[in-house]
Amino acid sequence: MSRTTHDDTVEHDVRAAFREDVAELAATLDGDALTAEDPGYAAACAGYNLAGQRHPDVVVAAHSASDVVEAVTFATAHDLPVAVMATGHHAMRPLHGGLLVTTAAMDDVHVDATARRAVVGAGARWNDVVPRTVEHHLSPVHGSSGQVGAVGFTLGGGLSPVLGRKYGWGSDHVVALEVVTATGELLRASADEHVDLFWALRGGRSNLGIVTSMEIELFPVERFVGGGLFHDGEHAAAVLAAFAAVTETAPDDLTLSLAFLRLPAVPGVPPLLAGRSVLHVRVAYLGDATGAEALLAPLRAAAPVLVDTVEETRSEDFERVHQDPVDPAPFSEETAMLAGLDPAAQQALLDFVGPANEVAPHIVELRHLGGAFDTTRPGAGAIVAGSAAYVLWAVSIGMPDDDADGIARARALVEGMQPWGTGRRYLNFAPDDGHPELSFTPADLSRLQRVKAAVDPGDVFRAQQPLVES
Prior knowledge:
By secondary structure, the protein is of the alpha+beta class. The protein has 12 helices and 19 strands. The chain has helices at residues 3-27, 41-45, 65-77, 126-134, 150-155, 164-167, 195-204, 236-248, 289-302, 343-353, 404-416, 442-455, and strands spanning 32-34, 54-55, 58-61, 82-85, 95-96, 99-102, 109-112, 117-121, 174-180, 186-190, 210-217, 223-232, 254-262, 277-285, 307-308, 311-314, 331-338, 363-368, 390-397. Strands 12, 13, 14, 15, 16, 17, 18 and 19 form an 8-stranded antiparallel β-sheet that branches. Helix 7 (195-204) packs across helix 12 and helix 8 (236-248) packs antiparallel against helix 10. The longest helix has 25 residues, at 3-27. The two termini are 43 Å apart.
């Protein structure tokens, strides 16, 4: 028998033995375990951001915390790195091999209206959570899209475009976390239990373990004034100047962002936005319509308004503020935190995204911070705001192999704004590029690494964004 035939036989036997092990694992689960040969494997590995290529040796579609325990135990026994995904909005590093845990089916939500708290499953999206809380006239610190996973959003900091400046980071309002560690142990982490792990997960995300549920605080918000103002891109300078002026003195009840949009004319992109430069001012005000009118007057007066959707709305209709796309798409991100938006910073930004530049990233957004984002709550997690006044986010749409120019433009924009940067970036918008030192202060990163060494010394969760530079 030739050497090639012998090697092929050995590989076949090893693969067959592994499939038998996976079948045994599947028999212990409430959900399922799949390999590439199984129907449903590709769908289980797919996420919202199609740029995140995932080809694990096995994917466990978890339906319970016990499924996650079994999956991690299996992975450690087979020396497989572990990654986790709920909705897949964030672009994780390509996964070739290892074990992927998907939590989309773990979407239970339980609300305690008296305590103003909710327990949220690992796979619950904001569209699962908010309708349950508004039944009790309450709202969580949620994201811009109802399609985004609540746990991932919150563990990465939780920058809310509606409640953020009033109540701060979503991670600050986590009461407790249920988490599976690298040893396959299911723990409850809170201000009183596994305190270091509780601190680290709130901002450090999933490199430390897999959160199977979280308990969060809720707030008495039933309605707000929200929507958007759309301007033609030729008025970028005037609108940006008005945005800078309004945000400089905005009350904490007002949360604004400004997006420079150059979206391709493809299915799913509204005709208003397709193939042209458009400015979108996103508005959320936790006050009445009269107060909103006065605060927004400079933005409406800065340039002709193409469309004005700002009106009093219900909390469950929060998606109308950003109008994020629903359909999956491939995209890459770059981000920075800015200390201010003075005239020099405005001009530098316009040099990249203004009407004189015909080629710019598809989406460039400024999200206003300040307000409660600047308040460090006792026992807060590992989230960095520093002295940041804005988060800058640049998005290029396309598969990475086909979008090198777009990714380079987004990166050049972020680098060009560094004179106004704080030296840090918001983790939920950050590319998975192996530079955790850009997302945390040196002291916080050192503490995170100590927690990592204690709870995951074998680096089982190395397939997630690392806490050491790579």
